[in-house]
Structures are given as structure tokens and as C-alpha cells.
Prior knowledge:
The chain has helices at 2-28, 101-105, 184-196, 228-239; strands spanning 31-37, 52-58, 111-116, 132-140, 146-160, 177-182, 198-204, 217-218. It is α+β, with helices and mostly antiparallel strands.
Amino acid sequence: MRQSRLILISVLVGIVAVILATFWLRHEREVVQVVVAASDIQAGSRLTHENLALARLPKEDVTTDTLLTRELALGRHAKFAISKGDMVKERLLVPVGAAGGLAGAITPGKRAFAIRVNEVAGVAGFALPGNYVDILLSTKDASGQPVSKVLIERVLILAVAQEQSVKDDAKPKVVDVVTLEVTPQQAEKLDMARLVGGLSLALRNQSDEGSEKTTGARKGDINGVPTSVDIIRGTDRMIRPGVAN
């Protein structure tokens, strides 16, 4: 009987310890006060006391470009649409002192450059303002063979068609023109690229800042698709006398 009581007491002490530890950890979790959207904010809208609020969020959920005080946001314009409750981040706002509209949304030192895409090249409508994409060029190499190559990585989309925001981010928007934010050198490269081949987009993760070095893809790199040389060799094998098929 005594042993049973000791076991019972030990179990109860363990349960209490777990509860206290959980309670302590929950309250010890560090939180940070941040600026959030008090209502849906459309691209180009001016940030005011009415559409901004403060919230306390876990520190691990707060990115380095999140604004911590309303004073840093008041009077500025939204570069992209911000949904109610979302954190207000530096990358979502136009530079300090700039006006609204597309021109004000362009980062100093960069340019807005529009390219024409079809439904497939535009990532079937899933490439939206605020997203990052890689730009691919499909052309021919020095020998006249088709080649596809990543031309520029991690380019910000400023607008699709003539819109800087979309009402429903979950709904694809098929357009034929995408406006990108690029450096002057990248603008020159894109201007030349569209003269020598077709441009397409590859949507990438927002937080992916890595760079992938590639050598381009040619017809012979596609498994199961024979090159022109393979076809010639196969034909030669079939017509040569004395060679088994």
C-alpha cells in the first residue's frame, strides 16, 4: 500500500511539473510589437492611423524588414497590396518621400521594364505583383541548335497588365504583359534578349535568395528526345547492309 502511494505521488508530481514547465515556456516565449494592416490596403494607398495597427507576435515570426513602430510607416505609400492583419514590411512600401503609383514604387537605382508573355510563359497567371521570378531565354546557339538558359534570377514583379495589385491572391490572373523591376544593365539585356528569342518566367519562393549556376538546356539534354545526330545515326544503321536492326 505504501509503495502504491509513493508511485501515485510521483506520478502527480510529474504531471504538475509538466504543466508548470509548459506554462512557463508559453509565457517565456519572446514576443515583439510590430505594425500590421488594420484593414486591406491597396497598392498605391497612403498609410494612415486608420489603416495601421500594432500587434504582438512571436519574435521568430518577425522578419528583419518588418516595421516596429507606426511612425516608420505613416505617410508612406504601399508598393503592393497588404491584407488585413499582415505585417507591414519595408519591401511592401515605396521608398521614403516617394509618391504613390508605379513610378514611386520603383526602388531608387532600378527601372521598370515590361515584357510580353503568353499564358504559359506567364506561369499560367500565378505570377503576381510582389512575387519574384527567374527569366528564361529560349533561342539558338552558335551552331543553330535550340537552347534555353536562365537569363536573370530573382526579379521582382511590379505589375501584371496595368495593375499593381490583385483583389484575390489565390486566383490566377492570366495577362500578356508583366512589368519587372530591374537594374539598367538588366534592362539592356532584356531588351536585346527579346529580339533574339522568347522570354518566359519561372516563379520562385519569396524567401529564396539563392543563385543557381546553370549551363543551359539543349535538345540532347531532354531524356527520351533524340537529337538530329541520333536520328541520322539510326537511319544510317537501318540502311547499311549486313547490320541487324
